[in-house]
């Protein structure tokens, strides 16, 4: 559900100030808001490095570049949903080029209803990407060593397990002269209340 996620921050990139004004005045109702604007590709890349956005709307072309490379880069390398707004006569060509990168393409002029629908679709795509990213992080935390899945895989020095082993060995060597003892805790799950024991069966078949 989209309600699980925070306000949908919108990044608008356009060399035309009227376009930015249109987007600002016609965002869908709800928790959409313009978080940043940029007039060209260089400025957009700088702001993207310093911010996190849900949806990026790019009005092609830009004053300093076509904007197609910018759109594909953002779509491939960020969790943003990217919408490229292009002239109607270029829409089919741009779809063939940009949609394989996951970019939404919108031909202009367009009615408000179409703009709202593509914003809803972009927000849903962002929510899905965010959920997948969170799940991947959770699995990365649990999966400390690939050999848990496939014992035939080679040992890799950089795994968390091997880092843990190195730390344990280091502490052991430092405390060997004093015969110190180490206590190791393996936190692999959230503690839960003890489940009540099942009632003994009245009869045994």
Give a count of the beta strands, DSSP E runs of length 2 or more: 5
The number of distinct helices, counting runs of at least 4 residues, comes to: 6
Return the string of H and E elements: EHEHEHEHEHH
Q: Structural class, from helix and strand content?
A: alpha/beta
Look at the structure and give the mean pLDDT.
83
Helix content: 40-55%
By oligomeric state, this entry counts as single chain
Strand order of the largest sheet: 2-1-3-4-5
Please tag this protein with its features.
205 residues; alpha/beta; single chain; 5 strands; five-stranded parallel beta sheet; disordered C terminus; 6 helices; disordered N terminus
Write up this protein.
The chain has 205 residues and is of the alpha/beta class. The chain is 41% helix and 15% strand. The protein has six helices and five strands, in the order βαβαβαβαβαα. It has a five-stranded parallel sheet, with helices on both faces. The longest helix is centred in the middle third of the chain and has 31 residues, at 112-142. The radius of gyration is 26 Å and the shape is elongated.
Fold topology:
Blueprint: E1 8-13, H1 17-25, E2 32-38, H2 41-50, E3 55-59, H3 68-77, E4 81-87, H4 91-98, E5 104-108, H5 112-142, H6 160-175
Parallel strand pairs: 1-2, 1-3, 3-4, 4-5
């Amino acid at each position: 559900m989209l309600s699980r996620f925070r306000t949908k921050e919108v990044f608008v990139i356009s060399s035309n100030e009227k376009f930015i004004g249109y987007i600002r005045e016609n965002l869908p109702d709800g928790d959409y808001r313009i978080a940043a604007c940029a007039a060209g590709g260089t400025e957009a890349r700088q702001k993207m490095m310093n911010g996190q956005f849900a949806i990026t709307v790019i009005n092609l072309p830009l004053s300093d570049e076509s904007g197609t490379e910018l759109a594909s880069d953002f779509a491939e390398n960020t969790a943003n949903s990217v919408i490229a707004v292009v002239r109607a006569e270029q829409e089919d060509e741009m779809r063939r080029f940009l949609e394989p990168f996951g970019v939404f393409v919108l031909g202009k002029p367009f009615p408000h209803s179409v703009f709202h629908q593509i914003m809803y679709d972009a927000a849903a795509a962002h929510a899905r990407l965010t959920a997948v990213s969170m799940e991947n992080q959770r699995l990365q935390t649990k999966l400390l060593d690939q050999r848990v899945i496939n014992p035939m895989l080679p040992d890799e020095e950089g795994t968390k397990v091997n880092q843990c082993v190195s730390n344990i060995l280091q502490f052991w060597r430092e405390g060997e002269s004093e015969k110190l003892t180490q206590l190791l805790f393996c936190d692999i799950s959230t503690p839960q209340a003890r489940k009540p024991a099942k009632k003994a069966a009245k009869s045994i078949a």
